[in-house]
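Supplementary Methods S3. Input chains for the assembly prediction are listed below.
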Amino acid sequence: MEKVFGRPKSLLAVRTHYCPGCGHGIIHRLLAEVMDELGIRERTVGVAPVGCSVLIYNYIDCDMYEAAHGRAPAIATGCKRVHPELTVFTYQGDGDLAAIGTAEVVHAAARGEQITTIFVNNAVYGMTGGQMAPTTLVGQKTTTSPFGRSAKHSGYPIRMSELLATLEGAAYIARVSVHTPKHILQAKKAIKKAFETQIKGLGFSLVEVLSQCPTIWGLSSKESLDWVEKKMMPYYPLGEFKVPKEEKV
Amino acid sequence: MEKRFMTGNEAIAEAAVQAGCRYFFGYPITPQSELPEYLARRLPEVGGCFLQAESEIAAIYMVFGAAGAGARVLTSSSSPGISLKQEGISYIAGAWLPCVIVNIMRGGPGLGGIQPSQSDYFQATKGGGHGDYRLVVLAPSTVQEAVNLTMEAFDLADKYRTPVMILGDGYLGQMMEPVEFKKRKQQSLPPKDWTLTGAKGRPRRIIKTLYLQPEILEQRNLTLNRRYQEIIKDEIRAETYLTEDAEVIIAAFGTVARIAKSAIRILREKGIKAGLVRPITLFPFPYQTFAQISDKIKKILVVEMNLGQMVEDVKLGVCGKAEVFFYGRTGGMVPSYDEIVVEVEKIVKEP
Ligand SMILES: Cc1ncc(C[n+]2csc(CCOP(=O)(O)OP(=O)(O)O)c2C)c(N)n1
Ligand code: SF4
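Predicted structure tokens for the full assembly:
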């Protein structure tokens, strides 16, 4: 019988440490499928963040660095400058990329660094137990915004994709989500496009993925899917914010 | 061989290129900016890459990335910038990656000043970043020695898979001297069978520092420590100058050691037999040299451009067998040979 659905080759056959209902596992799979389809597993180097997905190198079957918190784009830069022929990606959470590592990602994008960033926005700090992230929504309760994030006190959540799309060096910037099968397919397309942007040497590419974190949000898996749609998407609209020049009419 | 007249900063940069370094990542800061400026012109000539980073933090992680990719890579900075690099240096040490870091020290703490200083001795030799690691620290006192040690630093880094620091000061960086670039003998170095190049036809590799099981992290740290013990066994370097007949010893490193030599000549004209011990490797520190010398010489004056840092290591070496005195200037002030002469005369007179 023909096998129509299986594990991507670039994804290792191991159990992940993620909570049930977590978005990271879905995003890993999409990444692995894209690596398979582009046939780049053996010439790809990844950089893991510090966050819930620090152990991504236990799941994706390619050469990988583990970065310090927020510094993945700088490490990717060092690697890519030595090996321009490789495909280099970073995988980062919102604390990692939009707080402690803001400078590194902004400047990697501004330089048009030929790397791809998968940016997982779950509106909280997962790994450290649910503190407020730079992407936490106004009013959202976390362990360090116990009364709900107050804009007066803590300011407003950052829309990283929109911000990065203003930079000349950024070639492809998109925001997607993984809360329905339809959205998962769209997310995969964006991830593939981002890698293709790098392979064609067009500049920096980033895909922001709105991702459910049922554990920290205190919701069931099902409820967390709705939360992405009802709470996150109005503030973080999906779409392509920047596409490579060669695609523009 | 042809001699070139260069500043310390430029000479270190050229030495790195001749040692096979093709990548530099850094952020401008006085008094070392001539070093990156030189490489911005020079590296493209040899097919390398110079990249000015957005901060010293980014620069040190670019070094991490390039070192992990298998390249010989350099970064340089001065004191405040080196402080910012400490997190990355700890990660590089923990990931067992080789690289060379130049610190052309200036006065601190804080923004301090831009005049020469040696006040990062503790930071360089005792940790700086977090965790159980050491840096190999080389302290040249002439531009020629800076060239030789820079070339050697890349071999040491590859041999022991460790970051190596060249610790100079603003004087050394800015001073011009004639230098020769002698080709170093090819060293037999371990193969780099851990670099990230894409897992083509081999199992994938991971460069990481997270080890959540304490048993495993302890084993990694013990392995690192065994490497440091080898370094201590094989790599200690110190210069002794006129110590044979000496009644009093000056201990100094880097620029201060040069000034001390002038002071020693004057002291000898005045009939005081002074000699010098100059640690060249600050880690590993030449404790043994001080242990031996203090068997027969009972007065040692440590002179530094700080308020007393290396003096603690000298005391450990001497271990109570001789009296250890200290003289230091700080904040970018450089001790003159006259000042050193006066200090030595003082301690010699003491009963
Ligand atoms: C320099 C430094 N500061 C703080 C931490 C602690 N820390 C680890 S993960 C993390 C936040 C991770 O959140 P995020 O990037 O949003 O990823 P998630 O866990 O939500 O996937 C923090 C603050 C650290 N490891 N290093
Ligand atoms: S805490 Fe959240 S982000 Fe982390 S594994 Fe659990 S669900 Fe996923």
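The mean pLDDT of chain A is 97. Residues 24-244 of chain A form a domain with the Rossmann fold fold (CATH 3.40.50.970).
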